Amino acid sequence: MKRARLTLLLGTEIPILAFLAFAILPWFWMMLSSIRPERDLTRSPIVLWPETLTLINFIELLQRTSFALNLRDSLIVAVGAVSLGLTLALPAAYAFSRFRFRGRQVLRTQFLVINMFPVVMIILPLFVLMRGLGLLDTYFALIGGHATFTLPFAIWLLTGYFEGIPVELDQAAMVDGATRLQALWLVVFPLAMPGVIAVGLYLFITSWNEYLFALMLAGRNVRTVTVALQLFIGEHQIQWGLLMAGGTLVSLPATVLFLFAQRRLVGGLTGGAVKG
Amino acid sequence: MKRRTLLTGLAAALAATPLTRLYAQQKATVRWWYHFDDPKATPDELVAAFEKANPGIKIQAENIPWGGGGDYDTRLYTSLIAGNGPDTAMVKFNNLARLMEMNALLPLDPWIDTWAGKADISDDLWRLHTAPDGKRYYMPLQYVILYLYVRLDLLAKQNLKAPANFDEFLSVAKAMTGGQQWGFGMRGGSGGHDSWMPFAFGTGAKPVKGGFVSSAALAQNRYFIDLYRTHKVCPPSAPTDAFLQVINNLKAGRVAMAVHHISTANDMAATFGDAITAVPVPRGPGGTGFATYGDGSNCVFSASKNPEAAWKWISWLSEGPNNVIYNKAAGQMTVTKSGAANWTLHPKRFVDATVNSLPIAGVLPNLSQTADFTRVVWPQTTQKALLGQIEPDEMMKTFEKLFFG
Amino acid sequence: MRRAVTPWVFLAPALVATAVLVLLPVLNTLWLSLHQVILFRPRSRPFVGLENYAKALTDPVFWEALNHSLVWVVCAVALQFSFGFMAALLLNRTFAWRGIARALIVVPWALPSVIIGLIWTWMLDFNLGVLNHIGVRLGLLSASVPWLAQTGTAMASVILAVMWQGIPFFAVTLLAGLQAIPVELYEVASIDGAGVWSKFRHITLPGLATVIATALLLRMIWVANSLDLILVMTGGGPGTATQTLPLYAFLTAWSGGNYGQGSALAVMLTILLLGVVITYVWRSRER
Questions:
Q1: With contacts defined as CB-CB under 8 Å, which chain C residues touch A180?
Q2: Does residue A63 belong to the interface with chain B, where contact is any CB pair within 8 Å?
Q3: Which of B19, B23, C64, C71 is surrounded by the most beta carbons within 10 Å?
Q4: Which among A234, A221, A215 is positioned nearest to B36, based on CA atoms?
Q5: Which ipTM score applies to this complex?
Q6: pTM (2 d.p.)
C-alpha cells in the first residue's frame, strides 16, 4: 500500500470508524430490535443476531398510530423554528459582533442569563401566557417557543462565528454603497455559512427533540413525535416494538438534512477574501 | 396571581362573544382526557356510539401521554390552575386529596344515587371510591388488583407449590434462586410501592396513622428488605428495577415469581401458556393480607361548563356492556358485576386471582402527600434501604412522618 | 444618530421575543420563589421573603444535589468536548466518504432524550443488557454489573449516556469553526517546516479559540440545566445518587407540590451559572 494511503487509513479513516462505531452502535441495536420479533428481546441469554426479521413494528407504527402525522407536525415546527430562529438571531449576532455600543456586554450576558433558568420551572407561567395570547395548541406556539428559547445560544454561537470574519470586508462593501443589512446578507452571511449551518442544525435538532413545550403548549391539533413516542409508554405497558421503530425513524430527518448541508462545510472561504 | 386573573379574564371575555355563545348552545362539548397503554387502541367506537345515543353532546377525547404519571399530572394541574382544564378526565386516587384541596372536583353523589348502573358495581368498589369526607368524587372505570405471578413449571421441578403465606414465599424464593435465576423479581424502582404494600401490610398492619411504624409493619418491612439484602433471592438490579425490567425478567425466565396484575396476563399466557399462573399475594397468620388496588376513575371538574353532559359520558362508560368494551381497549378489569360474569378478555385463572383478592384489597391513605410518596419518596427511601444506606425501620419512620407528621 | 440606532434595530426582534416569552415567565417564577406556593393550594400564597432560600441552604439534600451537579457538569462537558474536538479534527480532513461520516456522527444528537434514556438503560440492564453480555463474553467484566442500581456506577452510567448524546454538538460546532481558518496558513506553515502539533498549537487553537470558549460555555449551561436523561434513566436514584440540582427543583415543585421552594432552587442554580458566565465575560473583556 502506498505510504500516503496507509497514513490516511491509519491516521484518519480508522479513528473515524471508531468514533462512528461508538456513535452508531446503540442506534443500530435499537434499529435491530425494531425489526426483530419482540419475543427475541426477552430471551436469556440474549441472542445478538436475529433469526427472523419482521417489519410489523413499522407497519403498525405508520398504519395504526398517528405517527406519520406526528412526523409531519414535528417537521413543520422544526423548519419553522429554524427559519424564525435564524431570522431573529442573524441580525442580533451581526449587531453584537460589528457594533460597539453601550450595554453591549450586559445585553449579551443578559440574553444568556435568562436562558440559564431550567425551562421546567417556567412552563406554568408560559402556559398561562400562551393561553392568554390564544396560541395554545397551534404551530406558532411551538415555533415561537422553540425559536425564542434557542435564541441566546444561537446568537452567542453566531456571534462567535461572525467575529472570525474581518470587519474590513463589511466596510469594503459599504464603501461600495451597501447598507448594513446588505453587508450582512451579501458579505458576512455567505462567509459565515459553515457557522450558519452549524447553528441551523442546532436549532433544528433542538426543536425536533423538544418535549416539554410540545407536551404542555400543544398536544391535540399539533402533536410532535416526542409526544407521540411518550404515548407508547403507558401506565401498565410499554410498547417496546413501536418505540424502537419510532426511535429509528425519528433520528433520520436530522441526519439526512446534515448529509446535504455539510457540503457547505468547506474550509478556506475567507482565505483569499481580504487580500483580494 | 393578578396577571393570571387578568389574562384569564381576557380569555373569558374573548370566549363570551355572541358567536361562540350561539354555537355552544347547539351542542354541549365535553372534553375528556384519558390515557391508554396501547396507542393503537382508541375510544372512537365508544365515542361514536355515545354520540349516536346522545345527539346533543359532542365528546372531545384527548389522549394525554402518561409519562410515568408525571407528564399526565403536570398537564392536568397546569391546565386546571390556568383555567383551561377539561370537563372530565381519568384520575387516580393519588390525585384525589390535591384535587379536593383545589376545589377542582364536583361531588357525584346526587347523580350516582339516581343512576341505574349503581347496583351493578359492588359495594367493595364504592367503598374504595369514597373520599375521606364521605362524598364520592370518583366514578369507577377500571381496576386491577396486584397478585403474584408464579412459574409453576420451575417450582414443579423441586416439587413446590405456589406459596400461600410469607414463610412459604421465602422458602420457595430461596429454592428458586441459583445460577442465573432468582426467586423473586422485586421492583425497587418507580411504581414499586404497589408491590411492596402486600409485604409491608400483609400481616395486619394498616396504612393509617401509626400503622407504618406498628410492630407488624416494621417486622414485615424488614422481611421485605431482607429478601434482597440477606437472603439475596432478588436480582442485584432490584433496587432500580421498574415495570419493564421486572416483566422482562419474568418473561426471560430470570425470576420465578413477581408481583403484577392482570394487564400483563395475556402477555404472560402467550409466553408461557399453562406454565405460569397467578395467585393472590401471600397472607399472614390468621388470613390477614393486603392486595394493592390499582384504581382508574373518571371525575367531573367543578370548572366544567357542561357538568351534566360530562356525567352522562362517564356514567355511560361505566355501564355494563360499555365498560366491557372500554376495558378491552384499556386492558384492565371491568368494574361492573354483569361484565365480570362472562369475562373472556383474560384467561380465567388470572381473573380469579384478581377477584379473589377483592376482600383484601387496600389503598394508600388519601392525603395530599400521597402523590409525592408514590413518585419520589417511596423509590428514593426504599432504594437507600435496599442498598444499606439506611435501616429498614428508618424507612418506615420516614413514611409515617411524611403522611402523618 | 443613525449609527447609534442601527444595532438596536438589529437587536429589536430578538429582544422583543425574548422579553415576552422568556423574561416575563422567569420574573414570574422569581416572584413566586419569594412566596410559599403549594401547587394544589392556589388560594394561599403568603409572602415569605427569602425563607425558601434559607431552607435550601440548610437542606442536606440541596448540597448533595449541588455536588452531583458539579460532578455531572464537569465530567459530561469535559468528555463531550474532548471527543467532539477529536471528531471535528478528523472530519475536517479529506477522504472519500467524508460526507457520510459527517452525517452519521450526528445520529446520537438527533434522538430525543426519552429514546436515548430507554436505549441506554436497556443496554446497561443487568439481566438482558447487551453491554453486560458482550463485556462478559469478551472477558472485560467478570460478571454482569447492575450499572444503574449501584451508587458508584449509576452516575458514571448517566454521564456515559449524555456524553454519547453531546459529542456531535461539539463535533459539528467545532468543525464549522475549523472552516473559518484559512487553508493558506497551514500551507505556509508546512513550507516553513512546522509539524502537526505545532500547526495545531499555533494555527488551529488560536483560530478556534472564540468558538471553543463559546461552545463550552453554552454546553455547560445546557448540561447544568438538563434533567431529561437522568429522569428517564434513574429518576435521580438509586436513592438520590444521581439527583442533580435541576432535578431536585423539578421534583420539589411538581411532585412535592412545593412550587415556591422548587422555584427558589432553580433560581439558586441560575445564580451559580451566572457566576460562571460573568467570569467568562469579564475575562474575555480583558482580551
A1: 6, 10
A2: no
A3: C64
A4: A234
A5: 0.92
A6: 0.92
